[in-house]
Amino acid sequence: MAAESIVRSKQAAEAIGGVLTEVVCTIFSDHIFVVVTQYGKIGTLISVTPHIIANEVGKPTFSTKILMGKDEPLVHVYAKHLVTFVCEESGNKSVLLALALKDANLDNIKSIKQLIQSCRLW
């Protein structure tokens, strides 16, 4: 009997805005790693962490921290928009997002989010 891998991964690729966009989602015991690239590189590395306030009902708040790459305000917005649903659906696991985009307009971000959803492992 073959042993099951400890780390599970799923990937997808699609042309978004005329640019090949690749997504790889990897699930670990304590966090999820999501790579979104249009360059074939890791790009900016962002930590997205949920914060749950004790005795509060509702959705958690999320903080973002740039670990590597350009620390620009829009990168934080993109990160929260792209992966907060991953945190929520995975039982509030932290997400490490690698983001390398050529064109990050609103329509492309929505399409990228759908591509991430197609790689659901959580």
Structure classification: alpha+beta
Q: What is the alpha-carbon Rg in Å?
A: 15 Å
Mean pLDDT: 91
Proportion in β-strands: 35-45%
Overall spatial form: globular
Number of strands: 6
Strand order of the largest sheet: 1-2-3-6-4-5
Total DSSP helices: 2
Mind describing the biggest β-sheet?
6 strands, mixed
Task: Write a structural description.
The chain is an alpha+beta fold and 122 residues long. β1 and β2 form a beta hairpin. The model has no long low-confidence stretch (mean pLDDT 91). The longest helix has 17 residues. The two termini are 25 Å apart.
Summarize the structure.
This protein has two helices and six strands.
Produce the secondary structure layout.
Blueprint: E1 8-16, E2 19-27, E3 31-37, E4 44-51, E5 61-68, H1 73-89, E6 94-100, H2 106-117
Parallel strand pairs: 3-6
Antiparallel strand pairs: 1-2, 2-3, 4-5, 4-6
